[in-house]
Amino acid sequence: MLNLEAKAAIVTGGSKGIGRAVAAALAGAGADVVICARSEPETARAAAEIGDVAAGRVLGVAADVRNRDDVRHLVETAVRELGGLDILIANAGVGGGFGPIDEIDPEDWHRVIDTNLTGVYYCCREAVPELKKRGGGWIITVGSLAGRYAFAGGTAYNASKFGLLGFSEALMLDLRDHDIRVSCIMPGSVDTYFNDKEPSGESWKLTPADVARTVLQLCEHDRRSLPSRIELRPSRPRRG
Ligand SMILES: NC(=O)c1ccc[n+]([C@@H]2O[C@H](COP(=O)([O-])OP(=O)(O)OC[C@H]3O[C@@H](n4cnc5c(N)ncnc54)[C@H](OP(=O)(O)O)[C@@H]3O)[C@@H](O)[C@H]2O)c1
Q1: What is the whole-number distance in angstroms between the Cα of residue 17 and the centre of ligand 1?
Q2: 85 in a domain, yes or no?
Q3: Total structural domains in the chain?
Q4: What does pTM read for this prediction?
Q5: Rounded to the nearest whole angstrom, what is the distance from the C-alpha of residue 152 to the centroid of ligand 1?
Q6: Is 239 part of a structural domain of the chain?
Q7: Could you read off the pLDDT of 117-170 as tens digits, one per residue?
């Protein structure tokens, strides 16, 4: 079994959905984890619930990844409380801005791009110096199949996730000689609270645990090879 004892991790968007499952998986493997989300009470509650049953420590920090000061505070807190940083899971993301271009509210456009793309840049910008101090580590971004395959009405979301894929691949090339392993997981439909919905319970969908398992597999992957882009699909998607 993977042992991440003495590893320190940040999971953005860790209060629910994919991020929460990833935080639980990392902490279950012994890592100490700081999660963040915008809602302070939800972040604190999730950290306490995950920490109650995990091997590693779990702390919650309220932070909006669109705000550079919040992100600085998040990384500083993780480094101070956990003694350094080995793993960044840049997961926080939002849907929205779906529809024809002439109906998209500019506020929605900026919310999607600022969260899904600029927010990841801010997190990596602050985390990379800390990962370098440790002599290596992992950055795993949570993209989407929508970052490779466009759909009608998806201009804002597609742009954010296509951008994130390009960002992640360039970052991988920049950092691999520092032993910092950058991978972008691109899931299809996952049963979460995404886009302000409740989980539907539909069995054909991926679960947050499916994505979390992929994160653990990346952390234990043989160091000679690097899966840099992972398309994770429901094996029998419901169509239409
Ligand atoms: N669900 C899918 O089908 C699917 C498919 C492919 C990719 N993804 C990607 O997976 C990632 C996670 O989504 P999910 O499905 O797990 O959604 P979710 O259940 O809605 O969870 C999103 C998490 O991100 C946090 N968050 C949102 N905006 C944030 C911000 N500005 N700063 C900090 N935290 C923020 C939310 O908490 P607060 O609201 O309190 O901030 C929550 O913890 C996203 O990047 C999404 O694009 C999802």
Answers
A1: 7
A2: yes
A3: 1
A4: 0.98
A5: 21
A6: no
A7: 999 999 999 999 999 999 999 999 999 999 999 999 999 999 999 999 999 999
CATH of the domain at 91: 3.40.50.720
Long-range contacts of 217-225 (CB under 8 A, 24+ apart): 218/138, 218/140, 218/181, 218/183, 218/185, 219/2, 219/4, 219/26, 219/29, 219/87, 219/138, 220/2, 221/181, 223/181
Separation of alpha carbons 93 and 159, rounded Å = 13
Give the H/E segment covering residue 35: strand 32-37
Looking at residue 48, its amino acid is A
For residue 7 the two structure tokens come to: 């590893």
> Catalytic pick from 121, 122, 149, 157?
157
Residue 3 is assigned to a structural domain of this protein: no
In a domain, 89, yes or no: yes
Tens digits of residue pLDDT in 49-90: 999 999 989 999 999 999 999 999 999 999 999 999 999 999
Domain region containing 66: 8-232
